[in-house]
Amino acid sequence: MAIINFGGVEETVVTREEFNLETAREALQSETLAVLGYGVQGPAQALNLRDNGFNVIVGQRKGSSSWDKALEDGWVAGETLFEIEEACQRGTILMNLLSDAGQISVWPTIKENLTAGKSLYFSHGFGLTYHDQTGIIPPADVDVFLVAPKGSGTSVRRLFLDGKGINSSFAIHQDVSGKAREKVQAIGIGVGSGYLFETTFQKEVYSDLTGERGILMGALAGVMEAQYNLLRKKGHQPSEAFNETVEELTQSLIRLVAENGMDWMYANCSTTAQRGALDWRHKFRDATAPVFEELYESVASGNEAAITIEANGKDDYKEKLQEELDEIKQSEMWLAGQAVRQLRP
């Protein structure tokens, strides 16, 4: 465990230096990791664990596109790839990486096979935190913990293949065996985490849902649309509006922020940009603060969970979702973006 100063606040984190891959393998040498679900996080975590030398099997509905993808990735039907129920029976650590909606529908099968001494793993606190809506209440005689990579499954796998790592949180809900901490840290290192910081199931899902609906996706998309639409209304051409709204951010400025922080990015821009950005950040912060407050309360109250569960439970959900995504894809802003991307050197 390492103590790191985060902006004046000290936190204890787990790094690869003190909990290395060899230690992780030893901690799980007698375990069979059953990755349930092969959609978003499933492929990345399963493949990273397999490549790191852990005993991994995959559980997925036979005949689905995800089953076919698992076969393409080298999982062998009847040996390392099984129907979900059989994977649950064979596994000692059941890694529940199904979608939130999938977790609800498959929970009876998982619960039936969660016999005493097994462990239940998540990468999201949703199902357990909102158990009054999902019905997911683990038996009292199993370890329950999570590792939540701070990025998409695509990023988890890509960074692993690049020899890097992604930051992840971890939490322990039940430690029946007395070894839950060892197990969760081992899996965290096994899936390719650069470092692990501790949280709770509740805090993980509250921060995650707020972030996704906020600055990571919802707020980012909304602010981009607002600026692009304004520039177009004021007579700017689509290419100019898109470049000033999206392209310069994603291809230049955000990379400077990632490298050394916001202050460093400011310091390496023009003096005109510095002055304006420093002045206007206060206006945007104060204007959006009430929206973020409303968002967090909606998450904490369970309202966002209810909306998600209701929407995902509808028979035509995927069709309706595609309509919404097509609306974004076919908008002038993102059609302009397709053209701009093709012109990149």
Give keywords.
2 domains, 15% strand, 10 strands, 345 residues, 17 helices, single chain
Account of the protein in words:
The protein is α/β, with parallel strands linked by helices. The protein has 2 domains: 2-199, NAD(P)-binding Rossmann-like Domain (Rossmann fold), CATH 3.40.50; 214-342, no CATH class. Helix content is 57%, strand content 15%. Strands 1-2-10-9-8-7-6-3-4-5 form a 10-stranded mixed sheet, with helices on both faces. α1 (21-27) packs across α9. The N and C termini lie far apart (44 Å).
| Domain module count | 2
Strand content: 15-25%
- Structural Rg: 22 Å
Q: What shape does the CA trace take?
A: globular
Distance between the termini: 44 Å
Q: In short, what is this structure?
A:
The protein is 57% helix and 15% strand.
Secondary structure layout:
Layout: E1 2-6, E2 9-15, H1 21-27, E3 33-36, H2 41-51, E4 56-59, H3 65-72, E5 81-82, H4 84-90, E6 93-96, H5 100-112, E7 119-122, H6 126-129, H7 131-134, E8 143-149, H8 153-161, E9 166-174, H9 180-190, E10 193-198, H10 201-213, H11 218-233, H12 238-260, H13 262-267, H14 271-300, H15 303-312, H16 317-329, H17 332-342
